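Why does this matter for the project? Reviewers at the last site visit asked to see concrete outputs rather than summary tables. In response, this paragraph embeds two records directly. Each consists of the residue sequence and, immediately after it, the corresponding structure tokens. Nothing has been edited or filtered.
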Amino acid sequence: MPRQPRSANVQPDKPKPAKRPPPRPTKKGKARSQADSLWKEMLDDFLERFMLLLFEDYHADVAWDKGYLSLDKEMIEVSEQAGFGTQSADKLFKVFLKDGSESLLLLHIEVQNYKDENFAHRVYDYNDLIGRKYNLDVESFAVLSDPEPNFRPSFYLRQRKRKRLLFEFEMVKLLDWWQRWQELEQSDNPFALVVMAHLKMQKLKRRPIELKEVKIQLIRLLFERGFSREYVIKLFRTIDNMVKLPPDKEAEFQTQVRNEFYGEDKIVRLSSFELQAQEKGLKQGRQEGMLTFALPWIEQRFGSVEPELKQQLESLSATQLQELGQQLLSLSSKTDLINWLKSKDVLVAASNS
């Protein structure tokens, strides 16, 4: 017998709605699209850690040593077929279970700031469509990141006369993790930092002074955990993109982080900033955007940058600046930097010392 539902989402049988028209590109819509993309990237990078933290019981059933496959193209096709479009943070993965079978893991991430009464219906539609299309078991999981404490859909119920359909799915409300904050702080699971960043941004988004200090604390925890360089880079980027600061506080944050975290393990710590510098500069669409962030690190590694050398750096195209950001870790001296510039047909008059 199915468990008794906590509350009902009862809907009579009715034809499925036509495909929704594409939403207008409003400011809120763009912000949500960016948040969706961020969650999708995090799930690709940290799926196993994500499941361990939020859905531990199911995590134990998966043979993680066999890897997993992200089915983005397939998810887009199903999403369009269901009429939901492609602007969502829903993800589909193929995993292998310890009993030797294959399963599809369907993750629904609700990142909007209001409750969607049709959410449970959407989870059911996806599960049903994917199960019939691929003839595999589909396990559905929902992560609710909204601030509404009473919005907790965990099942879809459809009833008509004597017919009754009950579809249940696993659900986690990120808001509940405030009660387990100490557990998050002490966890060595990298996804714990993602949950912390989300909760703090949600609570302090209108209090930038406090939010800046929280962002520093999260970066401090990131380096204290002893994660690999790959994790440091990805988590730094995630925290930076998730915890947004106004320009003046962002400048203070950059200065404080540079002063505090540029330490002995320079390669690990510097690499995250080089990647961040590369991305921020290119997103701004200006060459000087990249240089603003990259020059301090070049000076820290190779010493002062002569006016002639700086001029050559300023002459690089956006594509060349992007490539330079990727190459900085492999350059061990100013001579290497100058030789790299020469290889790009940039004439360098600066000293090779």
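We now turn to the second protein, recorded in exactly the same manner.
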Amino acid sequence: MTSRCRRCHHVATGGRACGACGALLDATPVAAHARAQDGPAAALLGQRVDGMRIDEWIGRGQCGHVYRATQEALARPIALKVPTAALASDEVSMARFRREARALASVRHPGVVTIHAVGALPDGRPYLAMEHLAGESLEAVVARGPLPVARATAIACQIASALDATHARGLIHRDLKPSNVMLTRDHGGRERAVLIDFGIVWPSDAAAVTRLTHAGDLIGTPHYMSPEQVQGEDLDGRSDLYSLGVTLYRMLTGRTPFSGTSLEVVVAHVGQAPPLVRSLRPDVPEALERVVRRCLAKLPAQRFASAAELAHALGATLGGDGVVTDRTRSPTRSAPARWRQRTAPLGAVALAPTEALPAWAADEARRAPTRAPGAARVDGGR
């Protein structure tokens, strides 16, 4: 029976304990939970639309409900994403939903979920039909504890390769985190990491940024946001590399670099150095530590110039037998300076638009180069 976790809302099939957080599972089937929480969500079960039968409610994504459906002519499982009625009535949210469809359709990469079709339900709400991925989220995996070093490195390398493909299309994910990565298997049985939920993907059109963002919005997940994203500064693909660095840090250590309230976390992203990975897990090679440090540099100019460069650096730490080695060199001579501890008063930072980040942080970000060669750039974001 497919059940949901009361604590973290992870969806699981079988078993009595949640694979994501370990809590006892609620025996209430997912479909019944959907009916109790959102009548329209459950009302779609069993309906047919454009040759697809909606079979089961899976959960909620960034922009709405996700269902498992069957494309009946091909007997092919499909993941169907449908915005809630509230989101469907919001012009900005719907513009984001349509942009997600266009973004996904423009990328062809095994590490990016494939879009099969777009359309509309009888009630007028749009839907997005995507590749159905059998497996579990990276969030569910890392919630059980740190991953083996080689596995974490290989997953991060695959994600970097997928980001390189999205950045080449002028798209920035902006919400890269373990729950937006699915782990599945390819036809050869090898593990494959796939980026999903592009609901807040960032276009390379500055005018579109202004049109598609509510005034004062801070969009993303605080624990995984780059310093420039926290500050509402210009973004390019290196912002995603910071988020990938946080994700790799968690895969290796079982925790994110910073903890606390959302306010405390975003302050730390801007002005504090996280504990070294090796201080939490001594078996991590120094070469991989250096890669993580460079990803988590406060200034974009001090990170890898592109996702492709990061993928190469990660691949260089993996030996032919999948064992992480120490073959890479320190990326820059100024690494210690990047990790100097800085202290900012908590009251100087807030998520509300009327409060500002520390002046030194904004000035430092503005002094840094805002674009790497070949990087997708976005202006605006306030």
